[in-house]
Amino acid sequence: QVQLVESGGGLVQAGGSLRLSCVASGNITAINVMAWSRQAPGKQRDVIATISSGGITDYADSVKGRFTISRDGAKNTVYLQMNSLKPEDTAVYFCAADLLVAGRDHNYWGQGTQVTVSS
Q1: What is the pLDDT, as a whole number, of residue 57?
Q2: How far apart are CA 12 and CA 23, in angstroms?
Q3: What stretches in the chain show pLDDT beneath 50?
Q4: Radius of gyration over every alpha carbon of the chain, rounded to an integer in angstroms
């Protein structure tokens, strides 16, 4: 069974930092793009950072310069380093990955981890 499991969320004061992790496990042949999205209460889920298999990154304007996405291929893990956090960063954070499983590409999502930034 293929799954993505996030960790590292929590409560932090404005200006603080958190590091999220997401591990992909199961019968995975290869991992292509990995990404982080977030969803605040009453709002749509937005992609905020992506990283290709070659390490090319892209960020939403709202997090550019504050968040850094990275990945460890050997560990099937993607990270999101979040610095200078703001109350408006409060959301459930989800990781996603495009995985090659049993010869086919599939998109998988994690269950989400809550990040709360207090003012």
Answers
A1: 98
A2: 23
A3: none
A4: 14
